[in-house]
Amino acid sequence: VDTYDITAAGGVDENYAFTYVTGTLSVTAAPVICIADDKSKAYGQANPALTITYTGLKNGEAAPATPPDIACAADATSGVGTYAITLANGSDGNYTLALVNGTLTVTEKLLTVTADDQTRLYGDVNPALTISYAGFENGDDATDLTTQPTATCAATAADDVDTYDITAAGGVDENYAFTYVTGTLSVTPASLTCIADDKSKVYGEDNPALTISYAGLKNGETAPATPPD
């Protein structure tokens, strides 16, 4: 951008003598729009690299002589939401710069919630059901969640030896999205002692009825499904 002489010369005519007056070419600043590019990241992550897109540059130039400063107040601890990416300053003698701010969008971090596997004996009540987490950021733990997930299992003390699903659900928090992993409750056989009852008889008589006593039966049961011989 500057002013440049426009010169006239070379005229010929037998009836005229030429005098030349210099003109001026004024080169003015071209407009350039500087746009802070929109960005996104998950909660707990560092900000991505902040970049600028330019519209209106000439002569293959990639940026103004002094590019604008770019900044965002969000950091790894900033919660889910939108934050301004701001431009300031910047200069170039050949351009007039128009600055357009952008937006950093902080999205929910994926939190994996796993219902822990458990084991119990047949006839016992379910043990306390617990949950493990993977994916917390910024020193967060379950107590920082708006609503903590809970684990449930449909098995009761009366259910047979088998495996049963333990499901986790119900987590709520503005900074986390929840994915759930099902656990397993393994119901194993209870210990049962089968005691052949002592008997007596008089010599020469038939044996008395032989009976069995049990120690360890559950759920009001009086004998195993197939008693011992």
Strand order of the largest sheet: 4-9-7-6
Give the rounded overall mean pLDDT. 97
Structural class designation: mainly beta
Strand proportion, as a percent range, falls in 35-45%
What can be said about this structure in brief?
The chain has 229 residues and is mainly β.
Describe what this molecule looks like in 3D.
The protein is an all-beta fold and 229 residues long. Helix content is 0%, strand content 42%. The chain is built from no helices and 18 strands. A 4-stranded mixed beta sheet has the order 4-9-7-6, with no helix packed on it. Strands 11-16-14-13 form a 4-stranded mixed beta sheet, with no helix packed on it. A hairpin with an 8-residue loop joins strand 6 and strand 7. The mean pLDDT is 97.
Helix and strand layout, with pairings?
Blueprint: E1 2-6, E2 23-27, E3 30-36, E4 39-42, E5 52-55, E6 69-72, E7 81-88, E8 95-100, E9 102-107, E10 109-115, E11 118-121, E12 131-134, E13 150-153, E14 162-169, E15 176-181, E16 183-188, E17 193-196, E18 212-215
Parallel strand pairs: 3-8, 4-9, 10-15, 11-16
Antiparallel strand pairs: 1-2, 3-5, 6-7, 7-9, 10-12, 13-14, 14-16, 17-18
